[in-house]
Design goal:
This protein is of the alpha/beta class. The chain has helices at about 45-60, 70-75, 90-95, 150-165, 185-200, 210-215, 240-260, 265-285; strands at about 25, 30, 80, 100-105, 120-125, 140-145, 165-180, 220-230, 285-295. The structure holds S-adenosylmethionine. It comes from Diversispora epigaea.
């Protein structure tokens, strides 16, 4: 199956949000991107965080996807990962399912542009705009941890409809996200979650992770299901808990910057709160739910 992006429909943006100018699928050059909604900035720790998280979630679910697409992948199909980050998900799958072709799309150039499997391609594009693909093109579209990247309006009125447009009839859509609350939280993580909620409200981001109830609102989708796994946070959960806590803790200092900037809490107080979290999540046996929601595009 060819993996050339000759399917690019146009490079024109629709909508009015974002600072992304243009993308170039030939060179993979990111021209300018300033993703104001993705609340953790692109920096080295973020690459590492996303990679660790990928392997933790794959281990917990025992697979990179939950939609029933294994046979499609084995026989050869077209796959798109929106918000692919460093491309870990794409690289992992494309080296196993060599008959299928994979495209990773991200607003930032974090993915490999030269050294990659032949059946993997990457493009820089803003998913808040019209996606640069023909209608009815992909067999499977994946969104991993994208809940913080779009406003609720963008999610419901641009991103999901665009995914469905470029999905083939009978093709599968899947979203994977962690829920916005901590199970068995202590006072510090509870406080942090409630500060996070306030912060997300100011950005008009959906207050909860994308779920089957959201997908069921779409009349073009059928066979909708949701799988939830609890991922331990902290050493009480063994190696998985330690690694997952690391992905959580790496992101916290940014919280200090953002939340104190917004004056939710004085810097010292926020710092003190965050310093107490590693011990607290371990003592409380805290965990986070990871949700996979998937559905199939109707044939008619
Ligand atoms: C939390 S990371 C998730 C990365 C990867 N999917 C994963 O599960 O590890 C969110 C990714 O979405 C990208 N992103 C944010 N806003 C975007 C947009 N408007 N269009 C395309 N990608 C976007 C970010 O650059 C980042 O790589």
């Amino acid at each position: 199956m060819g993996n050339k992006l000759s399917l690019v429909r146009n490079k024109k943006r629709i909508g009015n949000s974002g600072n992304v100018k243009n993308f170039d699928t030939e060179t993979n050059h990111s021209h300018s991107s300033n993703n104001e909604f993705y609340t953790v900035p692109v920096r080295f720790e973020e690459f590492e965080r996303l990679k660790i998280k990928h392997f933790v979630i794959k281990t917990v679910f025992e697979e990179n996807f939950s939609a029933p697409i294994k046979d499609l992948l084995i026989n050869g199909c077209r796959v798109l990962d929106i918000g692919c980050g460093p491309g870990t998900w794409i690289l992992d799958l494309s080296s196993v399912y060599t008959q299928s072709s994979f495209v990773g799309l991200d607003i930032s150039l974090m993915f490999p542009s030269q050294i990659k499997p032949n059946n993997a391609d990457f493009v820089v594009a803003d998913a808040r705009n019209e996606l640069p693909f023909e209608s009815n093109y992909f067999d499977y579209i994946h969104l991993g941890d994208m809940g913080y990247c779009f406003t609720e309006y963008e999610f419901d009125h641009v991103v999901i409809p665009e995914c469905i447009r470029i999905l083939k009839p009978g093709g599968w859509f899947e979203s994977q996200e962690t829920r916005r609350f901590i199970n068995n939280s202590g006072p510090c993580s509870e406080k942090l979650v409630s500060l996070g909620e306030e912060f997300l409200k100011t950005l008009e981001i959906k207050p909860s992770a994308y779920s089957q109830n959201d997908l069921k609102k779409n009349p073009n989708m059928t066979n909708i299901k949701e799988y939830v796994k609890q991922i331990p946070l902290g050493s009480w959960g063994g190696k998985i808990g330690e690694e997952f806590a690391e992905t959580f803790l790496i992101a916290l200092p940014y919280f200090v910057e953002r939340d104190t900037e917004e004056n939710y809490l004085p810097f010292e107080e926020m710092n003190e709160l965050i310093n107490k979290i590693p011990l607290e999540i371990s003592e409380c046996n805290s965990s986070v739910d990871c949700v996979r929601t998937f559905g199939q595009k109707k044939y008619s």
